[in-house]
Write a structure and sequence with these properties.
The complex is a heterodimer of chains A (83) and B (510).
Chain A (H helix, E strand, L loop, with lengths): L12 H12 L11 E2 L2 E2 H23 L4 H9 L6
Antiparallel strand pairs in A: 1-2
Helix pairs in contact in A: 1-2
Chain B lengths: L1 H21 L6 H6 L6 H12 L6 H10 L2 H32 L4 H8 L3 H33 L17 H49 L3 H7 L13 H6 L11 H8 L7 H25 L21 H9 L2 H39 L6 H25 L4 H14 L1 H9 L5 H25 L14 H19 L5 H7 L9
Helix pairs in contact in B: 1-8, 1-14, 3-8, 3-11, 3-12, 3-14, 4-12, 5-12, 6-7, 7-8, 7-14, 7-15, 7-16, 7-18, 8-12, 8-14, 8-15, 11-14, 14-15, 16-18, 16-19, 18-19
Classes of the chains: A mainly alpha (83), B mainly alpha (510).
Chain lengths: 83, 510
């Protein structure tokens, strides 16, 4: 008989990356710069890179911080007390 | 005329998708309301994205970029890229788990059960419905105005009063009928399928329009170089504090009733993974082309060398002007179909959510679930959906233009209610009285700011920035403070309820 799988260790430091992203949204450095990079205003290019980094960070959250116990909790009751 | 044919073909295809999806309807109320909690990752991503994006993602974004430059991306899309996924992860997945375990279908059911109180439902229901209705109205009005704009002169004999354009009331009616036809048949299942189809349409059409306009203007580098300097930077277009406090607005997704219902359709928690990662990317793919089209419009020239736009150009017409001048009539029709897709992909879920709320939170709650068969509950919901669609369309015929700024305020209203759902999931000491106080405080401050904005300006939140800060900050704050103070002053929830929603004394999922 297989032993029950141990829940994976969660790396809560990844949440710190989300806080850093929250701060980095405000691009003081390009605020008043009218420069274009590869056909994009530099502020918009920053926003694009920022968005891609957001997506990657959510990928990291899934890999390192996934709340696997949610599934167990949800499946335990089978809609107990459903209205 | 070509544009009109393209739009009609698109609407027919949409009805076709709705009919096909309804073939998979399992005939139970659980399937009608939450698709038997069986939606997979791709469909969840497409339906959630389609639901959260409105016509603003295409028409509004290009118009605002034309007027206020690139700042609009950071204010709305940039924050949404981070905050939406955060709300899906920290709130949506947990609500899905509660919904699956305890059988919740509507937000009100969740709040009633979590706070052991009928009053919470009575206070929250009218506020949520009241905030959704303007949102529905601008969808119908926006669809009408869009089609009227692109069909000018197409049918002069049929519609002489509008210069040959299809009148807005007719388009609104047709759009309402199309949406109603598929949600009537398959409920949330059809809404999810149709959303997926529509999401694909508005993303692809936006990108094709961008590519064709870019090519016509000699490439992105040249087009951006021709744009006015003031639109390629944030300085002068938005204040630092206003820009920062815009992060409150995307929190609204935590309290949208229609999004709550979409979350509950997920097959498992893992289903959310694709949405968490791809949602920000989808936002970027949809928004960046439209923002660029908007800023390019400031410097674009006609073939005769004359400026295409002026300071008097209305922002919401910018996308249409650019598409008309730099693409073909077929593409102009397809882009209009894309705009309609963005509008309808929100409308359908909202209609289903409203129908579900009136069925579950009002009738079934008042009369008792045992009094209805499953089949009767489905027909009840269908009846409410028809009623809401017809009522919304009738109101849209007489709604004043002021409804547009009111709808902008609705986002602030939903965002300001966010402390309630956050507390419901993470703060076991939160009480029903605290929630009621939070709702009342939010409503009072919201009405205060909204009224002030109509007295001093055009009725938009930008008219009433207090110390340069978006009013949503204060409305959110009022709700949060009232919730905390009153919760701490009243009796905590029962140990049984705390254990139900905080097993082992901790929030589920850590």
């Amino acid at each position: 008989m297989n032993a029950p799988a141990r829940p994976k260790r969660r790396h809560y430091w990844v949440y710190g990356l989300l806080v850093i992203l929250f701060v980095l949204h405000h691009d003081f450095m390009f605020w008043d710069l009218a420069v274009n990079v590869a056909g994009l205003p530099i502020g918009l290019a920053y926003d694009m890179v920022y968005t891609v980094i957001c997506a990657c960070t959510w990928g990291l959250v899934i890999l390192l911080c996934w709340p696997s116990e949610l599934e167990t909790f949800a499946d335990a009751g089978d809609e107990e007390g459903a209205p | 005329m070509t544009e009109l044919w393209v739009i009609l073909i698109y609407l027919s295809l949409l009805v076709g998708v709705g009919i096909i999806s309804a073939q998979f309807f399992r005939g139970t109320s659980r399937d009608f309301f939450v698709v038997s909690r069986s939606i997979g990752p791709v469909l969840l991503l497409m339906s959630v994205f389609g639901t959260t994006m409105t016509a603003f993602a295409m028409v509004g974004s290009s118009g605002q970029a034309f007027r206020d430059g690139i700042a609009v991306y950071g204010k709305v899309a940039g924050w949404s890229a981070l905050i939406h996924s955060a709300v899906f992860f920290f709130i949506g997945m947990k609500l899905w788990a509660f919904g699956k375990r305890y059988g919740h279908i509507t937000q009100i059911q969740f709040f009633r059960a979590r706070f052991e109180s009928e009053s919470v439902g009575y206070v929250l229901f009218p506020v949520l419905v009241g905030l959704v209705i303007p949102y529905l109205l601008i969808g119908l009005l926006g669809a009408g105005a869009t089609v009227q704009g692109v069909t000018a002169g197409a049918l002069p004999d049929l519609f002489p009063d509008t210069g040959g354009a299809v009148p807005a009331w007719l388009t609104s009616g047709v759009v309402a009928m199309v949406v109603m036809s598929y949600v009537f048949a398959g409920g949330m299942r059809s809404a999810a399928w149709a959303n997926a189809f529509q999401t694909m349409i508005f993303m692809v059409m936006g990108f094709i329009a961008f590519w064709m306009i870019s090519t016509s203007l000699g490439g992105a580098e040249q087009a951006t170089a021709m744009a006015e300097d003031n639109v390629v930077m944030r300085e002068g277009n938005v204040g630092q504090l206003e820009y920062f406090t815009y992060f409150f607005i995307p929190l609204s997704v935590g309290m949208f009733p229609h999004l709550f219902q979409h979350w509950l359709t997920a097959k498992s928690a893992k289903t959310f993974r694709l949405t968490l990662v791809a949602h920000p990317v989808f936002i970027m793919i949809t928004w960046i082309p439209c923002i660029l089209i908007g800023i390019w419009a400031t410097g674009a020239m006609t073939p005769d060398g004359l400026p295409l736009t002026s300071a008097e150009t209305r922002p919401n017409t910018v996308l249409g002007i650019m598409v008309e001048n730099f693409t073909t009539p077929v593409l102009a029709g397809l882009v209009t179909a894309g705009v309609l897709a963005a509008i309808m992909s929100s409308l359908d879920s909202q209609f289903v959510a409203m129908g579900t709320m009136f069925t579950q939170d009002v009738v079934v709650r008042a009369v008792g679930e045992d009094r209805f068969s499953d089949r009767q509950i489905i027909w009840l919901a269908r009846g409410f959906i028809i009623g809401i669609v017809v009522l919304t369309w009738l109101i849209s015929l007489v709604a004043p233009r002021a409804i547009f700024p009111l709808a902008i305020w609705c986002f602030s209203g939903f965002a300001a209610l966010f402390p309630l759902v956050f507390a419901a999931v993470y703060w076991k000491r939160a009480t029903a009285a605290g929630v009621v106080a939070g709702v009342i405080a939010m409503a009072a401050t919201w009405i205060g700011f909204f009224t002030a904005s109509n007295i001093v300006g055009t009725g938009t939140p930008g008219d009433v920035l207090l110390w340069g800060i978006n009013p949503v900050f204060y409305i959110f704050g009022a709700c949060a403070v009232a919730l905390v103070v009153v919760s701490l002053s009243t009796r905590p929830p029962s140990a049984e309820t705390v254990e139900k929603y905080f097993p082992g004394g901790r929030a589920i999922g850590g």
